[in-house]
Description:
Layout: H1 5-8, H2 18-32, H3 41-54, H4 60-68, H5 75-84, H6 95-111, E1 116-121, H7 128-140, E2 146-153, H8 156-164, E3 166-168, H9 169-175, H10 178-184, E4 185-187, E5 195-198, H11 200-203, E6 206-210, E7 224-229, H12 238-250, E8 252-260, E9 274-277, E10 280-282
Parallel strand pairs: 1-2, 1-7, 2-6, 7-8
Antiparallel strand pairs: 3-5, 4-5, 8-10, 9-10
Helix pairs in contact: 3-5
Bound molecules: S-adenosylmethionine (SAM).
Amino acid sequence: MSMHAEQIFPFEEFELSDADFNWFAQKLRSSAGISLNDSKRNLLIGRLRPRIKALGLSTFAEYRSYLQKTPVQHPEWEKFINALTTNKTDWFREPAHFDYLLRKFIPRWRLSGRKHLNVWSVACSSGEEPYTLSILLKHHLFKDESFEILATDIDSTVLSRAKNGVYLRSRIEEQIPKEYRATSFSAGSGDIADWVRVRNVIRENVVFEQMNLLEIPDIYPRDFDVAFCRNVLIYFEQKNIESVVNQIWQHCAIGAMFAVGHSESLQSVKSPWQSAQPSVYLKSDNTTSRASITPFDK
Length: 298
Ligand SMILES: C[S@@+](CC[C@H](N)C(=O)[O-])C[C@H]1O[C@@H](n2cnc3c(N)ncnc32)[C@H](O)[C@@H]1O
């Protein structure tokens, strides 16, 4: 036979040995906190294959030895992590949190006499969560009140999309209540008629920054009034969840509101956060000791 078998059956690139899978999974866990169990094998194969092709390599084993020889500051490590993060997000996702913010939290926050609200969208993905917060606060805060939103994520690709602030018009129409659309987005025309751009008035209060939850900078503000950390802890191991929620607590002001995803149970997580309603917590002033959070996700 004149042709090599792999020229006819180019299957080799799809093969992933247990040793290679475990190595990639371990690297992802130690650098980003994200745990992939064996059921995520195909996900890893599908997500890393474009990296292997982009580098002109042909097997997972070659990609592993490429990374092994590559210093951690090299951009390929960032691309490796970007490829393996799950960035699914939506506008107005899990609306009960926004409802709590507007109806319960802000009226109570006003009683403190403060006029400036500091908000942290902790794993903001492509921007829908912080821009949703910005749209709502622009519409519902009083004229003499102000806010700023720090929006962070580990993934530099989604952060670029978030900063760009351009979204599919159809998603806006499906997910955003009509009363907010015209004042929050400008529509494209001609070739870009399918797209809209977040208006400056909504963007100006949002700052995007790359941040790894395993390395929350000590210099981050310590006075966030609102922190949303939704649909990311689900990928983390217990010890990292505990460390992250406790660090977020340290960076929040007394009285702050903290939201996690609806499917993220903090059951058995040791933390001083006080449960307010399912997946919403408060930093009360009598929580100097680390108490166990009451189970809620049932
Ligand atoms: C499923 S999205 C959730 C986005 C948004 N919070 C929501 O609920 O719609 C999870 C985000 O967490 C980010 N992420 C994963 N590991 C992270 C880490 N170690 N530090 C910061 N962000 C991380 C991912 O890049 C991804 O954009």
